[in-house]
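User: Hi! I have a protein structure encoded as tokens and I'd like to know what sequence might fold into it. I'm fairly new to this, so please keep things simple.
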């Protein structure tokens, strides 16, 4: 019978095939499967088989040390964590080195930022090989701080910038593309979920913390991609990063004013950008005069808080306009009414501005029977040649709003191009798909340019 190796409740181990020289593991016979901390997990094909690329921060509370790994995907499993949550995880098979012994083990990949250990060794890996003395720790020895420095604190790790993407959904196309584009250009990219961030306000020592107590004070740059429902908290976090002297691609004040439809239109007009004739009221009594103000029906009625085409109604007759305005009035809502540009024929332009330059443009066309051209509302995207005047409007609009990255929506009217809206977190899927341009890469270049100029 093979002698079993004695281990303690914590041990240092290595994963030679993954290029991980040392990682501290919690030995847990209560857990069936072993689990390894992994972020930025992506699938790819190699020799007609499914493989995974993923990143590991092997040292707890140190997100600067990063190892890029590849392994064959062998399974996907639902795993119940110690906190009771169920999660679908990728499974790989690799060798673990404990002391003098190497064993093949199956490991699930998951984000363990909120856990005390980057690695958990479960009982499947122990059976027939290991015996645990829970009262002891590091029976097999541990690396010295010099060893760890040599492994993980080399200067080569500091070539690129450390960039955070502050957003809500890591699976969203735009967010995945930005992470990918940053990594392709040699930067250390981190997805920072807004909901997991919290902050310490202090004149002498302000901080931002992340799930599990990780301190986020060592970022070079942050890209805020804040969904409308999280504007208040997302902008508060962005301001905190600014207070820590972190470069932010769009500032909190620029995002806040771009989300206020009325304020942004007033700003644009003050900067000489033409818009469709617009009326604004809070639950108006003079509905009739408000309709007349924008040239009568048909007209567009918008709720100030709407996004992605929601809260926008086309009223084709005066009667329809009155009933829509009265319905919004009962909500005690702020209402925008805007002239309807019939000749646009359900089409508008989206110009993508990065760092004062139009990097891509597409035409969006509304689905049949729909007047809103938003891609989310079933609109279709196609390449379009924009005029120098349209480019000028888009650049001036982004500048007026103080946005380094902006999606500028323009409509072609008989009076010439008119600005509809400026978006501070424009989606990439429609425009990258239509134009085949690397817009995510342009956003990363804008960050690099800032650091070169300093």
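Assistant: Happy to help. Inverse folding works backwards from shape to sequence: for each of the 454 positions I chose a residue that suits the local structure. Here it is:
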């Amino acid at each position: 019978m093979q002698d079993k190796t004695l281990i303690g409740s914590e041990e240092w181990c290595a994963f030679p095939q993954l290029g991980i020289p040392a990682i501290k593991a919690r030995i847990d016979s209560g857990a069936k499967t072993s689990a390894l901390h992994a972020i930025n997990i992506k699938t790819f094909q190699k020799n007609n088989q499914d493989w995974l690329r993923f990143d590991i921060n092997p040292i707890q509370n140190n997100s600067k040390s990063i190892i890029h790994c590849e392994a064959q995907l062998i399974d996907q499993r639902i795993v119940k964590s110690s906190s009771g949550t169920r999660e679908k995880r990728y499974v790989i098979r690799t060798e673990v080195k404990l002391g003098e012994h190497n064993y093949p083990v199956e490991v699930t990949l998951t984000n363990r930022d909120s856990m005390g250990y980057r690695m958990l060794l479960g009982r499947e890996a122990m059976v027939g090989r290991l015996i645990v003395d829970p009262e002891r720790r590091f029976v097999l020895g541990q690396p010295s701080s010099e060893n760890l420095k040599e492994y993980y604190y080399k200067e080569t790790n500091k070539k690129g910038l450390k960039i955070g993407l502050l957003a809500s959904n890591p699976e969203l196309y735009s967010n995945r593309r930005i992470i990918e584009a940053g990594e392709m250009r040699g930067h250390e990219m981190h997805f920072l979920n807004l909901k997991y961030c919290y902050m310490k306000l202090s004149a002498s020592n302000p901080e931002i913390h992340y799930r599990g107590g990780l301190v986020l004070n060592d970022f070079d740059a942050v890209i805020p991609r804040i969904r409308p429902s999280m504007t208040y908290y997302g902008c508060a976090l962005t301001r905190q990063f600014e207070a820590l002297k972190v470069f932010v691609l769009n500032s909190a004040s620029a995002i806040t004013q771009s989300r206020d439809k009325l304020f942004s239109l007033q700003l644009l007009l003050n900067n000489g950008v033409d818009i469709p004739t617009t009326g604004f009221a809070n639950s108006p009594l003079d509905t009739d005069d408000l309709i007349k103000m924008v040239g009568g029906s048909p007209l567009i009625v918008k709720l100030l808080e709407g996004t992605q085409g929601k809260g926008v109604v086309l009223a084709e007759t005066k009667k329809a306009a009155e009933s829509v305005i009265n319905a919004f009035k009962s909500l005690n809502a702020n209402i925008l009414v805007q002239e309807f540009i019939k000749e646009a024929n359900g089409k508008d332009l989206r110009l993508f501005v990065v760092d004062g330059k139009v990097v891509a443009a597409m035409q969006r066309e509304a689905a049949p029977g729909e007047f809103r051209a938003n891609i989310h509302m079933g609109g279709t995207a196609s390449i379009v040649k924009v005029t120098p005047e349209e480019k000028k409007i888009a650049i001036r609009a982004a500048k007026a709003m103080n946005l380094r990255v902006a999606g500028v929506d323009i409509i072609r009217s008989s009076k010439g191009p008119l600005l509809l809206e400026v978006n501070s977190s424009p989606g990439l899927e429609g425009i990258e798909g239509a134009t085949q341009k690397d817009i995510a890469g342009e956003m990363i270049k804008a960050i690099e340019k800032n650091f070169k100029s300093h």
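A useful reference point when you look it over: The chain has a mean pLDDT of 85. Feel free to ask if any position seems puzzling.
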